[in-house]
From TrEMBL:
One Pfam family recorded for the sequence: PfkB
PANTHER family tied to this protein: ADENOSINE KINASE
Subcellular localization(s) per the UniProt record: Nucleus
Domain of life: Eukaryota
Main location: nucleus
Name of protein: Adenosine kinase
Cofactor: record remark: Binds 3 Mg(2+) ions per subunit.
Keyword Iron-sulfur: no
Gene source species: Periplaneta americana (American cockroach)
Function field: ATP dependent phosphorylation of adenosine and other related nucleoside analogs to monophosphate derivatives.
UniProt keywords, alphabetically: ATP-binding, Kinase, Magnesium, Nucleotide-binding, Nucleus, Purine salvage, Transferase
Amino acid sequence: MGNPLLDISAIVDAEFLAKYDMIPNNAILAEDKHKPLYDEMIEKYQVDYIPGGATQNSLRVAQWILKKPNVTVFMGCVGQDKYSKILETKARNEGVNVQYQYTDRVPTGTCGVLITNNGNDRSLVASLAAANCFTIDHIRKPENRAYIENAKFFYISGFFLTVSPPTIMEVANHALKNDCPFMMNLSAPFLSQFFKEPMMQAMPYVDILFGNETEAAAFAKEQGFGTDDLMEIALKITQLPKKNTKRARIAIITHGQNPVILAKDGIVNEFAAIQLPPEKVVDTNGAGDAFVGGFLAQLVLGRPIETCIRCGIWAATEIIQRSGCTYEGEAMFIEE
């Protein structure tokens, strides 16, 4: 579950970021001052429309790698408009079984993706709109309940904490009761700060937690870990209280071109990222989502965590060579 958004992506200049009080490599929710941003982007720059929303992106990438349609089911709320049609068509074509909740009150959510610094930096400003309207009754419909009953793995982005914590808790309890892995993502620094309560309500249910270096640092600060060492932070995340004692929590921290950190069973390991020449890096926007997609693709096949991480790194490397969270051709991940 997550927030289905249509990404409006463009390469912009630093002045444009500054105009809207935005900083590189950050993710925020749109405020009133950001309302004109989307139209101005469309007017001033060459924009791409790409199906987005972190969770939906991850599932699209997982489907690309798995080469078998409808392994994944995605739920989130959209408006009854052309944007939701674009989203649904694209996601279904890419193998994701989307089961949207529809609202006629507000339009489908959009996310401005502002790319700067030769594609190395990206700043996201999300206008959740319809995504905010998701309600728990959607997962209680018999047909959707059946998808939940049949699922063996559950992944929810941290962004969904701003939308429907009761839904997260209901699914988390179901996963616990059925001993299914429940996974979440820190998703953005502001969530650890301003949505700390629902995040920490869900945390005891989390079997695998993902995050990048800035998200992990913000989380550590809010939790009073007293360290900015990413390896120590990953270890401390695994030691937070946990409901399912049959499996220890795993923490995974991505860090751009630096190694991916894995904390598991009291041990911290690093996995080297694939180094690309700078001219090959087009857009880092979808890297984190793609990493999770690659990871999930191997996890559902029962592969070891190390293989899952290597596939995550491979997927992220593929995605950053294109604009937005997009891909082409056949996924050719080969485990060494």
